[in-house]
Amino acid sequence: RHRLITAAVIVTIGLPLAFIGFGGTASDATGQEAAASGVGQEAPVTLDPIKEFTPTGQTADEAIAAHENATEGPEQPIPFNHRFHSQELQMQCEYCHGSSEQTAIAVMPSVDLCMGCHRIVGANLEPIQRLRGYYDSGEPVPWERVYKVPEFVQFPHRAHIRSQVECEECHGKVEEMDRIYQYSSLKMGWCLDCHWDVGEDTDVATDRLLIEQYPPIETPDERQPIGLYPRRLDQQYGANRGPIDCFACHY
Q: Residues 207-221: what's their mean pLDDT?
């Protein structure tokens, strides 16, 4: 009899605890099942992935508008906002302009390179649809040129990049430009100011391309210090100074 009473007490106390442990009453369980069956029926929350992961939360539409409303620099067929890509998305200059490290002339990125991202990213934006039109037709984007030196001046990008000249030395802080404009005057005095500078932290170095093209064995001595032809550039200018011979830029 004592055992029967003990068992009854355990059952009486245990059943409510069991219901509490598994979420309460049967009606509560029915409600949970109904809620579970409703999962996935509600409209999903859509996020703008570009806005979600940029530091200021700027959207692509806002970047396009900022480019179109900018007052400096020529209008472009595609409103490519450098501030948005360089600062917001943290893209490096070399990603789009990497060919400048291998060629004397800076080359604009191909439409194929642009579409590598924009096949998916921003595909519904009107400028990207225009970009796709160029891609489908096999035509390059007719960008308006921003920087142009005279025909008698040579500015080898490869030599300057190899000499560790930063892009912003000539192009300014493009990460702060909604639309690219000419930052530097490109006048001869502006170039020479940099070539003459031998400060402690200067990145300007001797043009290695000229040394390769005119090695010391082919360069006779006793040439004028400043003139048409280069001399022993490393000895004359040192490793932290650009050449100032006429032939260094005019050839």
A: 48
